[in-house]
Specification:
The structure is a homodimer of 492-residue chains.
Chain A (H helix, E strand, L loop, with lengths): L11 H11 L3 E3 L6 E3 L1 H20 L3 E2 L5 E3 H4 L3 H7 L5 E4 L2 E3 L6 E3 L4 E8 L4 H11 L8 E10 L13 E11 L2 H21 L6 E4 L11 E8 L5 E11 L1 H5 L3 E3 L5 E3 L1 E8 L1 H10 L16 E6 L4 H20 L4 E3 L7 H11 L3 E6 H5 L2 E6 L5 E5 L3 H26 L1 E3 L3 H10 L3 E5 L4 H11 L2 E6 L7 E2 L6 E2 L2 E5 L3
Parallel strand pairs in A: 3-9, 17-18, 17-19, 22-23
Antiparallel strand pairs in A: 1-2, 4-8, 5-8, 6-7, 9-10, 10-16, 11-12, 11-24, 12-13, 13-16, 14-15, 19-20, 20-21, 23-27, 24-27, 25-26
Helix pairs in contact in A: 2-6
The complex binds zinc ion (2 copies).
One zinc ion binds next to helix 12 of chain A.
């Protein structure tokens, strides 16, 4: 297979697929809408997961694991939830196969029909709140701060690798609290954890906001989100945190005795991010040569490639320099590899590590080494520098820091350049079509108007930014009065 | 709920359930045969997973992720495999629910029937080898060394928490090799990884062996295993590693070009351990007061409990000592907690941490502290010692090491005491009934005899130990000649 990628200019969508497939992140599978996460993609996910997990634990959460299957009747217990989730999902109806009496392999055994069908979890609120009923009796059992790392399934008709797949990996936090305010505080605290992770680790600037009623999670009283801008100007929701009120506690009858010995329903939150974040990473930073990965998450941060001559002494010298450098970098927890495989040429290696998004490439060339020089290339800007051997390790360390912040700043500048403030419908449509990006505009606050705008423009309200400045204005569609601007965009 | 446990003497099986439920490891779920892994149980699994993962990576493996669902037809492709796995499994037949027109919640939408049913993976050989076909063309693509951490589902009729559940968590390694010998070497290498993990981390002595044809994995040419003895003398298979020959390569047509440009089928292995290991840990080490966890895997290794008097200066002094000790221990990566919650009394805390299996308990008592003394209790032997304050940190560190090796030695002695060598059928049955434990005996090597022994005694051949001494003898059942002893036991 050729490693040449479609360019973003030619076909942004195909460019994305090319990167994911040829960059070794994922592959299609024989199961409709499901993907195979390949080693390079999975390693990226491991680094994301480990850091998020560290932050969840640092904020007092514990992990647990709940069943994959949800009894069908559970989905109906929370009225809004069933509307949102009980539709496109995988249904287990039987528990046995048998040999086909006509000899055609195996068939479903009609005698092994389940009394009640099981749904493969699309999200776990129902089964978890059913369990919390047994775990919560008193205020002493609260707060209950639990997270689960799991696979979930939502039967999607149109799928995209990482961005929208039938099965995906995610984490889902599910917490229970004694008071409304404590639950709201938890919701926004976890939104802050997500935002900080996106910005500090993924180098991805995000807008924190709250969803309109239309876009709320099914069963939530408020859905908070972080929204990021991709290189084509579209929005990608990178994480959500839901304040669930007492909806699930009431649906599953989860009450607790407070300090005054009064019974009350428990307050709830849930929050999640998924392997979709890998799609966001790719779309936000990569270029026509391949992946560009932020050093903090890159599975491999530094690759060292030798260019030998025919002289054994020089070869030994190069190998020695590489060994020393690796030891020094590893002491500082840098993920580094020395690729001296002589089945492939340096040029092939350069292209391969560019495609895979390795942040720093160090070339130990026989001729340079004689002059104590080394070539260091950074993946983000493709800049190459000749470095004195004695400053190499130091330079590499601060280059990793530079790349991380440069990637964030570049993405931030891109977002600022593509953030448009408009005041009329005509301008709104023209901006969407000609400029792409996010639009800050007035909206009259009704679901009807929101729906109409979506229908006419394919743009949706991504969020009402938190700490939004109040400002009097007129709705771009209806001209009705508005008190604040909201963010519109076309979205993934 | 009372925290008092059934004793092992009273009812070993109930004792096990009590420990798992009251020790906070797992809970039953509303889905038949599926369990909820509670935070304490999941933390234990995380420590096991992280260490195994480190060892898999150290031996050159990478993680990846394959779909949860397997098209039904895939299971039929490998003849032996379908016999073993295509029977009791969860079958997805539909992908949508709809509102019940009669108002009773949601029902399965009959229009949303899948053309081909999907099986929730009971193991992933088939979907993985279907994928490997695309990934392997040449000897340069080999070896392919991949592991997956995942949930799997096998529809079990009789379930036990951790030991046998419909859904469980596990890892499954799936490797592809150019030669038969390399695949066999991989199979035994991973068996060694499992055995070392069981012994060094779980403090669980294991016998490495190979399964008889009857007990082989469905589709394997050889199944290697590690077998451990529980406190009731029964065997528990703690891990398996399979040499799959070219069976899956032929079933999924995975061929490669070798260095001489000839085509050949690829050689395969697979190997796995699961959350069943948590059941093994409990059954091997715990006592009538609760869990006894090996320090290397215990989520909490040391707990510090203060016993204050009414004097503020003494309270401050105790808190200060605890803070210093925690800082010192944490620098050495000890997982330590200071429990100075004054809603519960020290006696309650002691029982709780005993139940949870915390290896070391340090009591900072107001009166002792005046004499610079501290009480240190070890969970495994329940021994309490008065320690000079200035040697406390050092003592704690080597106590953790002592407990780890003491637990292993105790389990090893128990196994040796319950390993019986018998030569006649009468002795065999008598030993099984009166003594319990493992039996080393001669067997004539046929499946028929093995089946007959199982039928008559409920004991199975656990394995033919690796590096078994050859010894002439007569089969305990048939009297036919035998060349080596094998290990019989009743098993979980
Ligand atoms: Zn520099
Ligand atoms: Zn000592």
């Amino acid at each position: 297979m050729s490693k040449t990628l479609t360019t973003r200019q030619e076909d942004y969508s195909q460019w994305y697929n090319d990167i994911v497939l040829k960059g070794g992140l994922a592959d299609y599978s024989p199961v409709k809408g499901c993907m195979v996460i390949k080693p390079h993609g999975y390693a990226l996910w491991e680094h994301m997961r480990d850091e998020l997990d560290r932050q969840f634990k640092a904020t007092g959460h514990q992990n647990a694991y709940f069943p994959l299957f949800i009894p069908k009747s559970f989905l109906s217990k929370e009225a809004a939830h069933v509307e949102g989730f009980a539709k496109e999902c995988a249904v287990v109806t039987h528990y046995r196969l048998k040999n086909d009496p006509n000899g055609g392999g195996v068939i479903v055994d009609p005698d092994a029909k389940l009394e009640e069908e099981l749904i493969v979890r699309p999200t776990s609120e129902t089964i978890i709140w059913n369990t919390y009923k047994d775990w919560i009796q008193s205020y002493r059992d609260l707060p209950l701060l639990i997270n689960q790392w799991a696979n979930v399934v939502r039967w999607e008709m149109r799928t995209r690798l990482f961005l929208r797949t039938t099965e995906f990996l995610w984490q889902e936090g599910h917490t229970a609290h004694a008071t409304k305010q404590e639950a709201i505080d938890e919701t926004t605290k976890m939104l802050d954890v997500y935002a900080a992770f996106a910005e500090d680790y993924m180098a991805l600037p995000v807008i924190k906001g709250v969803k309109t009623a239309n876009e709320r999670f099914a069963g939530a009283e408020d859905t908070y989100c972080i929204e990021a801008m991709m290189q084509d100007g579209k929005a990608l929701q990178a994480g959500t945190s839901h304040f669930l009120g007492q909806n699930f506690a009431k649906a599953f009858d989860v009450q607790f005795r407070d300090k005054e010995n009064k019974q009350d329903y428990v307050w709830a939150t849930s929050w999640g991010v998924s392997t979709r974040l890998i799609g966001a990473l790719v779309m936000a930073h990569s270029d026509d040569e391949g992946l560009v990965l932020p050093p903090k998450l890159a599975p491999l941060q530094v690759v060292i490639v030798p260019i030998y001559n025919k002289d054994a002494a020089t070869t030994a010298k190069i190998d020695g320099i590489a060994a020393d450098l690796m030891a020094t970098l590893r002491k500082q927890n840098v993920r580094v590899k020395y690729d001296n495989d002589d089945n492939t040429r340096p040029g092939w290696k350069f292209a391969e590590y560019e495609l895979k998004g390795v942040p720093v490439r160090i070339v130990l060339g026989a001729r340079d080494i004689e002059n104590n020089l080394v070539e260091v290339a950074r993946r983000d800007t493709k800049e190459k520098t000749s470095i004195q051997l004695d400053t190499l390790a130091d330079h590499t360390m601060h280059l990793l820091t530079d790349i991380q912040s440069n990637m964030f700043n570049k993405a931030l500048k891109f977002r600022e350049d593509n953030m448009h403030t408009v005041d009329t419908w005509e301008e709104f449509i023209k901006t969407l079509d000609e400029k792409s990006g996010f639009i800050s505009a007035h909206w009259d606050g009704t679901s009807e108007t929101e729906d109409k705008i979506k229908e006419l423009s394919k743009a949706t309200i991504r969020c009402i930014p938190l700490n939004n400045a109040l400002e009097e204005g007129k709705c771009i569609l209806t001209g009705n009065p508005s008190t604040q601007r909201v963010i519109f965009a076309r979205a993934y």
